[in-house]
DNA sequence: TAGCTTGTTCTGAAAGAGTGAACGATCGTT
DNA sequence: AACGATCGTTCACTCTTTCAGAACAAGCTA
């Protein structure tokens, strides 16, 4: 996507304001005006306009993200064919493993969490539906990239790099390509505390009829919650099994 | 919320554009320009700006709602304490009944679907997470209103009226108040094709410690799918049971 | 009470959103 | 194959309208 030739600055500013509110978990007019480069009267006008349509909620001089965004967000998700195909199986996997199960898709070279199901024993993380993450530092992202053409992976790395998130993140290009090759063989990926310290995940790609990935599913759990045996023997099979069911649903129905 | 004294028109226009795209299930520049009162070059500028941040997706000269809205929408939902408390139980109810289960909250006098779980046999409806509906024409809305003070109900009716959605919608004010009184006694509400022809629902309120409703759960099914016996005997108990579990989770944890 | 915040209102002035025409591309039709 | 229609995109000018800044009310803290 080329840069807009004639961007509408007001729209950018509004989106910025909304994103700041999300980041701060609710904020007041002055607080927002400090972060975005416009005066507080202007911020006030934006917020009133957004509040009118319930895109923000005002609670005691604090503004919060409004539920009107849910309509658009849920709609956007429902539009993706993979969501419908995957949801039931993701729920089931969460139920069986008791862990946190995630579904991720790619958008413009980054990963976006599309759906999340929490088992009874699920770890609490910073991930939420709609959040975007670097693809290279998660099992989900690696599983997804492994089933994309090499040139596409190169493009994505060119654009976003391989920034380190923890000491375990793979930051070397060749090492990363080797990792992807291995994932292609196993049809599952493992993340050893590569994005978050103390967390490891197993992920499997969900591919279309041409074996190109359209999404990935993962189970995430704290390093010390599951012993290695179960982590390496049991989880990969379960995750691949779920991915398989989703693929069938996605490709043949 | 008072009318904004100094609305930011550009923001209104952008939101209008986005809402049109949603309504039309994707649209082109000219198509949008026809509906919103600005030229197509202006619409084009808006869309490019939104696309830059993934708030809209461009696919072959058609623009669609982007996944960036999911981040905000899911975030807004996660902020509501009722969501966390209810989600697991709503899933369970859907699993047990095989039907469509909905969770609704009130916002500015209208109902907003907060969460939805589909059982194996769930009916396909026009409802989706984030959608807003009139409160008076659904079992969910009636259950919710029944546990609000009378003056609050009056205010809401003053603002939104009791418009007929089908031939069965209650459109008379007194009749509606009587219906609410009955719901207060039973602690569950029934919707007899009042919003959609051929659909009936059973809903129960979820109340706080002062017995004021904060949300409602419902099971929805086609009129001819379930015989009257099961509909009237089995469902109310199940739905009230689920509501009860959610209340405990909401109020005491 | 004074002194700091906060959100809100208002008007002028500078910014920029929108108009409308023109261009190039891609249709389906003649 | 050439046409006409319709699409998305670009551009420069103009007039709309956003924004800055000051002033005010309300709520704190000291």
Verbal overview:
The structure is a homodimer of 253-residue chains. Chain A has helices spanning 9-23, 29-35, 40-52, 68-79, 81-97, 139-146, 150-160, 173-186, 228-251, and strands spanning 56-59, 62-65, 100-107, 110-118, 132-133, 189-192, 199-207, 213-222. Chain A is of the alpha+beta class and 253 residues long. The first copy, chain A, has two domains: 9-71, Arc Repressor Mutant, subunit A (Orthogonal Bundle); 80-251, GAF domain (Beta-Lactamase, 2-Layer Sandwich). Chain A has a six-stranded antiparallel beta sheet with strand order 5-4-3-8-7-6. Chain A has a two-stranded antiparallel sheet with strand order 1-2. In chain A, helix 6 (139-146) packs across helix 8. Chain A starts with 8 loop residues before the first helix and ends with a helix. The interface between A and B is large, with 55 and 56 residues. Chain B binds a DNA duplex (30 and 30 nucleotides) through helix 1 and helix 3.
């Amino acid at each position: 996507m080329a840069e807009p030739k004639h961007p509408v600055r007001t729209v950018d500013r509004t989106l910025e304001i909304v994103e700041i509110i999300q980041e701060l978990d609710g904020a007041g007019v002055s607080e927002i005006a400090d972060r975005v480069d416009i005066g507080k009267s202007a911020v006030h006008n934006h917020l009133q306009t957004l509040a009118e349509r319930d895109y923000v909620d005002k609670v005691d001089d604090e503004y919060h993200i409004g539920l009107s965004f849910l309509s658009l967000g849920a709609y956007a998700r429902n539009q993706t064919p993979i969501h419908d195909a995957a949801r039931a199986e993701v729920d089931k996997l969460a139920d069986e493993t008791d862990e946190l199960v995630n579904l991720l898709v790619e958008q413009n070279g980054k990963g976006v969490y599309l759906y999340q199901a929490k088992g009874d024993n699920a770890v609490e993380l910073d991930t939420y539906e709609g959040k975007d993450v670097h693809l290279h530092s998660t099992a989900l992202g690696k599983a997804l990239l492994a089933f994309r053409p090499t040139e596409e992976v190169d493009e994505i790395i060119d654009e976003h790099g391989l920034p380190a998130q923890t000491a375990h993140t793979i930051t070397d290009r060749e090492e990363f390509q080797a990792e992807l090759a291995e994932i292609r063989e196993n049809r599952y990926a493992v993340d050893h505390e590569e994005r978050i310290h103390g967390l490891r995940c197993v992920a499997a790609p969900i591919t279309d009829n041409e074996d190109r990935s359209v999404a990935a599913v993962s189970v995430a759990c704290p390093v010390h919650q599951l012993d290695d045996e179960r982590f390496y023997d049991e989880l990969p099979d379960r995750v691949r099994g779920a991915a398989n069911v989703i693929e069938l649903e996605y490709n043949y129905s």
